[in-house]
């Protein structure tokens, strides 16, 4: 399978997670391209699936990720896709912070009009993963 991973990052953690996923997917025999959303990533049209990731920084995701999704929305909504969110708030013991991170993610995807098959929130502190399937 040919998979595209597009990411936006502020401090580099989302880039690290993207390359970690790349290594796992390549070990499983997939062809993987990883691209920073701020560096003109390829169109998803020539891929079998897409994974897009971004980090929450001051209650927002990187604008380059929104621009990429908006530019390719028709293709993205016709193919298998996943969105992963990197967020320090997930490390908190406070349910309110978890709900806020989930709301930011849901609002972002709703505003973008993208309906990925799966959404994940990654904790920055120890890379624990909370999963929410759509």
Question: Any overview of this molecule?
Answer:
The protein has 134 residues and is an alpha/beta fold. The chain has a single domain, classed as Rossmann fold (3-Layer(aba) Sandwich), CATH 3.40.50.360. The chain contains four helices and six strands; from the N terminus they run E-H-E-E-H-H-E-H-E-E. It has a six-stranded mixed beta sheet, with helices on both faces. Strand 4 (81-87), helix 4 and strand 5 (118-123) form a beta-alpha-beta unit. The radius of gyration is 14 Å and the shape is globular. Residues 123-134 have low confidence and may be disordered.
Please render the helix and strand layout as text.
Elements: E1 2-7, H1 13-27, E2 31-36, E3 49-55, H2 63-71, H3 73-76, E4 81-87, H4 95-112, E5 118-123, E6 129-133
Parallel strand pairs: 1-2, 1-3, 3-4, 4-5
Antiparallel strand pairs: 5-6
Instruction: Characterize the main sheet.
Output: 6 strands, mixed
CATH-level-4 superfamily name: Flavodoxin domain
State the strand order across the main sheet.
Answer: 2-1-3-4-5-6
CATH architecture: 3-Layer(aba) Sandwich
> What is the C-alpha radius of gyration, as a whole number of Å?
14 Å
Q: Provide mean pLDDT, rounded.
A: 85
* Low-confidence residue ranges: 123-134
Q: Could you name the CATH class? A: Alpha Beta
Quick one: overall form?
A: globular
For the termini, the CA-CA separation is 22 Å
Structural class based on helices, strands and sheet pairing: alpha/beta
């Amino acid at each position: 399978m040919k998979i595209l991973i597009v990411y936006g990052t502020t401090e580099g953690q989302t880039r690290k997670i993207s390359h970690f996923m790349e290594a796992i997917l390549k070990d499983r025999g997939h062809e993987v391209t990883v691209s920073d959303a701020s560096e003109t990533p390829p169109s998803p049209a020539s891929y079998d699936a897409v994974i897009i990731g971004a980090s929450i920084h001051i209650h927002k995701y990187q604008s380059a990720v929104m621009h990429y999704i908006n530019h390719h929305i028709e293709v993205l909504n016709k193919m298998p896709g996943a969105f992963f969110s990197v967020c320090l708030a997930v490390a908190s013991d406070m349910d309110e912070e978890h709900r806020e991170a989930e709301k930011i993610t849901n609002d972002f995807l709703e505003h973008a009009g993208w309906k990925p098959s799966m959404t994940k929130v990654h904790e920055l502190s120890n890379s624990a993963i909370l999963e929410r399937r759509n």
